[in-house]
């Protein structure tokens, strides 16, 4: 079933923005994507914190948080199970990289929740190693900014390989994340996730899982490792605010290496703690 998306600009129903908007000219801004269940945004506080941190990192004046929250709740109203994307643009102005002191523009897009996710969570993910790396840039590391061309190329490759997601490394060859999800792997009682100090997106669900693991029997480490470490992992999972967490069945690293996983111990532990977990 196709559900038509709904759009708001600064809280007003609207389908267009100005051509002079810096999000169009330069990808100047940041965003977050949240799940809406029964008119309630999941992990709203974490999403607001992410947007504020993104604005801070981009030296962008953030919108008023109370007003932003009001607009989010307005867009979530009446949604039983939906996705809400919140974009903060640097606003409208003329050409040139230097920003003027103009107010930000907030764009909200509500769309249907992906129908494929429940089946994927039950079946488990098939991953492929992406040939497209992420550029190392500590100034943008962790921020979900609007420059997503690397992800566009990665997603195309994933589709061509008939996979569900990707393992993505940086230009130094170190593990970073998936195309649109964060990565964890388990070796015994030790859980690892890539450090995101050089590039990548510090996901809302990743932060939530890190907090959950602090009170579990598992020891968790943020680390810099090459993808070969996954060959010896007992379990691999991926997460984002929509999934919210999914087990990985296999990783096709290249033509010669194919790693498979059957354990779901970490996944089983985390699922009840993930807000809006798929029934």
Describe the structure.
The protein is 24% helix and 28% strand. The chain is α+β, with helices and mostly antiparallel strands and 279 residues long. Strands 7, 8, 9, 10, 11, 12, 13, 14 and 15 form a 9-stranded mixed beta sheet that branches. It has a 6-stranded antiparallel beta sheet with strand order 2-1-6-5-3-4. Strand 3 and strand 4 form a beta hairpin. It is globular and about 50 Å long. The mean pLDDT is 95. GO terms for molecular function: 4-amino-4-deoxychorismate lyase activity; pyridoxal phosphate binding. This is Aminodeoxychorismate lyase.
Condensed summary:
The chain has helices at residues 22-25, 44-57, 65-76, 117-123, 149-160, 204-214, 265-270, and strands spanning 6-9, 12-13, 29-37, 40-41, 81-89, 105-112, 125-129, 165-169, 175-177, 182-187, 190-194, 219-223, 235-239, 245-252, 258-260. The two termini are 20 Å apart.
Labels describing this entry:
279 residues, Aminodeoxychorismate lyase, BCAT-like_C, single chain, alpha+beta, globular, 2 domains, pyridoxal phosphate binding, D-amino Acid Aminotransferase, Chain A, domain 1, six-stranded antiparallel sheet, D-amino Acid Aminotransferase, Chain A, domain 2, 15 strands, nine-stranded mixed sheet
Compile the SSE list and pairings:
Blueprint: E1 6-9, E2 12-13, H1 22-25, E3 29-37, E4 40-41, H2 44-57, H3 65-76, E5 81-89, E6 105-112, H4 117-123, E7 125-129, H5 149-160, E8 165-169, E9 175-177, E10 182-187, E11 190-194, H6 204-214, E12 219-223, E13 235-239, E14 245-252, E15 258-260, H7 265-270
Parallel strand pairs: 7-8, 7-14, 11-12
Antiparallel strand pairs: 1-2, 1-6, 3-4, 3-5, 5-6, 8-9, 10-11, 10-13, 13-14, 14-15
């Amino acid at each position: 079933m196709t559900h038509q998306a709904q759009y708001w600009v600064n809280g007003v129903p609207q389908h267009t923005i100005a051509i002079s908007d810096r999000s169009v000219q330069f990808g100047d801004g940041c965003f977050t994507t949240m799940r809406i269940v029964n008119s309630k945004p999941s992990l709203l506080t974490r999403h607001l914190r992410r947007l504020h941190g993104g604005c801070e990192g981009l030296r962008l004046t953030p919108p008023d948080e109370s007003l932003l929250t009001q607009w989010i709740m307005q867009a979530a109203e009446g949604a039983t199970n939906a996705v809400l994307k919140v974009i903060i643009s640097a606003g409208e102005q003329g050409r040139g990289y230097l920003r003027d002191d103009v107010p930000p523009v907030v764009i909200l897009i509500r769309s249907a929740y992906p129908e494929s996710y429940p089946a994927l969570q039950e079946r488990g993910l098939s991953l492929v190693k992406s040939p497209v790396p992420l550029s190392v840039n500590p100034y943008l590391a962790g921020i979900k900014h609007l420059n997503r061309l690397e992800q566009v190329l990665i997603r195309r490759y994933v589709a061509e390989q008939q996979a569900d997601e990707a393992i993505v490394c940086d230009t130094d060859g170190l593990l970073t994340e998936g195309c649109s999800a964060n990565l964890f792997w388990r070796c015994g009682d030790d859980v690892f996730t890539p450090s995101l100090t050089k590039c990548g997106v510090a996901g809302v669900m990743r932060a939530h899982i890190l907090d959950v693991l602090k009170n579990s029997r598992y020891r968790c480490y943020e680390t810099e490792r090459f993808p070969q470490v996954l060959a010896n992992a007992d379990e691999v999972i991926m997460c984002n605010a929509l999934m919210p967490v999914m087990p990985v069945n296999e990783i096709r690293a290249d033509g010669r290496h194919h790693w498979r996983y059957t354990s779901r111990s970490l996944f089983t532990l985390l699922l009840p703690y993930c807000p809006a977990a798929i029934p």
